[in-house]
Amino acid sequence: MKETKVIQEGKMRDAIIDFLIDLPLFDKLKTSELRFIVKRMNFIEIDKGEILFKEGDKGNYVCFIVDGTLDVMKESVTGESVVITALSKGRSIGEMSVIDDFPRSATVKARTEAKLVILTQEGLELILEEDPKIGVKILKRISRLLSLNLRKTSSRLADYMLPLA
């Protein structure tokens, strides 16, 4: 992964705020709150075919896709990588890693060149320390997103299960 760039420049920061305001994780926040958050985020670009992170890696950041497409892959029982979903602009990946200290649950590879905004675990902790109200809003939205994802996964799993009796 290329070196991260702290979001400080005015035009870039404003463009990232405009992007974030439409994401479900941030859509309930005021512009002033988003300005506060963006100062604690990073921006990266990755090339087509580049691995963002591998299943089993230590995770400590969530990514928001500004541009491009990422493939989320899991290793099958036969040992081959299987694309389980593709994520594009406006989607996020790695929400669990800013909450827990467990390894990454999947590998993420750039299908195309991609631009990402990153919130690290350290950045989230800074937000929580410096402005707990904003931090709690973010945590509530992450919890909601994880809950929705779990509901979807449970529903899909139920479609493949046989009745117990």
Describe this structure in words.
The chain is of the alpha+beta class and 165 residues long. The protein has one domain: Sandwich (Jelly Rolls). The chain is built from four helices and nine strands; from the N terminus they run E-H-H-E-E-E-E-E-E-E-E-H-H. The chain has helices at residues 10-20, 31-38, 121-130, 132-160; strands at residues 5-6, 42-46, 51-53, 61-67, 69-75, 81-88, 92-93, 107-110, 114-120. Strands 1-2-9-4-7 form a five-stranded antiparallel β-sheet. Strands 3-8-5-6 form a four-stranded antiparallel β-sheet, with no helix packed on it. Strand 5 and strand 6 (81-88) form a beta hairpin. It is globular. The termini are far apart. The mean pLDDT is 88.
- Which geometry do the CA atoms define? globular
CATH class, please? Mainly Beta
CATH architecture: Sandwich
Overall structural class, as computed from helix and strand content, comes to alpha+beta
- Could you tell me how far the N terminus lies from the C terminus, measured between alpha carbons in angstroms? 49 Å
- Rg of Cα set: 17 Å
Query: What name is given to the CATH topology?
Result: Jelly Rolls
Largest sheet: 5 strands, antiparallel
- Residues in β-strands, percent: 25-35%
Biggest sheet strand line-up:
1-2-9-4-7
How many individual β-strands? 9
What is the helical fraction, as a range of percent?
A: 25-40%
pLDDT < 50 runs, ≥5 residues: none
Counted by DSSP, the helix tally is: 4
Spell out the CATH superfamily: Jelly Rolls
